[in-house]
Amino acid sequence: MSPDGACCICIRSVRFSPRTPVTQSPTPPKSISILTVDDHPVYREGLAAIIRSQADFDLVGEARNGREALELYARLRPAVVVMDIQMPEMDGIEATTHILASDPKARVIVLTTYDGDVQAVRALKAGAAGYLLKMAAPAELTHSIRQVHLGKRRVLAEVALQIAEHAGDEMLTSRELQILRAAADGQSNRRIAQHLGISEDTVKSHMGRLLAKLHARDRTHAVAIAVKRCIIEL
Question: What number does CATH give the domain 174-228?
Fold first, then answer.
């Protein structure tokens, strides 16, 4: 009570000791589950060794061809698929098409020995998120897997340059491809005409158009260009 009779409230000074901060251990990053697809056992083992060397990678399955890839993908639902192109029973591009049809969110990186732009375009149109050469350094592969897992696309610079260079080129027709493959087998125009049931002049006409489309000097040059760009295989 104050001298004048009024009530007063006395607030004592209380000292608060600072709270000790609670340290939380960082949450470990979630592993990226990976399915590899390749018909060569030695290369599969090499891929497995690279993947297992990364703390944030988890190799959940290995397939030997495209059909096995479809079965394992349906069962395992990996975050990223590392897919070869040239395989028996079902190639990598067809397998990629089926995987993306079943799961539009699937992330596929295509690996190949060839750097041709035509094959790369086919793979990307099939839905592949990455296109790498088998000769790429392991660091390039692991970086690409992480980038693709984050929703980005990865195409080697030299392949992307080839795609850009030929972006405006006119595609070969199915008949022109038939004639080009026959020429690659060493068949003469007369032999090609007999095999396809058309006249020799028609073969020459098709050959002239495909030479122009490929910017080739002659049929030998056209075959070399087509093989390099993965338009045809020998």
Answer: 1.10.10.10
